[in-house]
Amino acid sequence: MDNVAPAPLEGVSGETLRDIEALAVELARLAGAEILNSLGKLLAVRYKGAPEQETRWRDPVSEVDSRVEQLIRSRLAEKFPGHDVLGEESEERPGRGHDFIWAIDPVDGTANFINGFPLFAASIGVLHRGQPIVGALWCASTHALRAGVYHAHRGGLLHFDDEPLKREGNPAIRRRLGGEPNLSPAESLPWEMRKTGSAAIECAFVAAGLLRVARFETPNVWDVAGGLALIQAAGFDIQTLGPSGWAPFESFEPRGEGDKADIRNWRQQLVIGEREAVALLAKVHGPNAAKGPAAA
Fold first, then answer.
1. Which residues are registered as beta bridge partners of 100?
2. Alpha carbon distances (Å) from 38 to 44, 67, 74, 116, 271
3. Which of 119, 201, 269, 280 is most enclosed, with most CB atoms within 10 A?
């Protein structure tokens, strides 16, 4: 294990955490069923941004994204009507200011999904005062070579489809894999680079031991909220790059001026994974790189 387990949450019982996790898993499976049901069908697809923007074809949204988010929002309104919801496809905030925020990405890796490339996920993350406490990620591809849900709650074990997951690495493998948005790094690193197109998938794969480390340059909260809960449950390290350099990740903080400050605006570089690999990758990327260890 790389990390000390997060401290218990004040005023939040283990039973509450387990109930929230159970619902998160239910919602992740609901999203997965909708995604699977849509495969092979002609989907309506739109692109974010103005038509004249050069990047207009780089941020697609399918009808499944919107439909799944609305289904999840409806279920949350029944079960936890006071909780806030932070979704990628809708800016509706039913419980702004509440201690609990559900950060949902109905299809993470939409470009992969609409092209039939089987690396995409549905991510359900739950925050308490900005700290990840529950994660449930339905992934189209997993260590089991089938779709399934990785899930965990704060202080608990990492699970895959309701069974505890702890995979032992093969010591004969000398060069493992790392997730990296830039496949041409500034210097050689002791792992093979992979770019999956889904932050949620990479979080799940790091937690499950398929990737040794992963880096995200400007993730949104909903991209990684559920995944960070899995990383913590797996005992791995999380570092974020802030104004003062790299530091252990603690919580998502609102960004913006005055009353416009909102957790929705949070975007900071993250590195997740085995402690030594995280330190090395942080050394390569960031203003205080010289403070990290020199080798993994």
1. 128
2. 11, 11, 20, 11, 33
3. 201
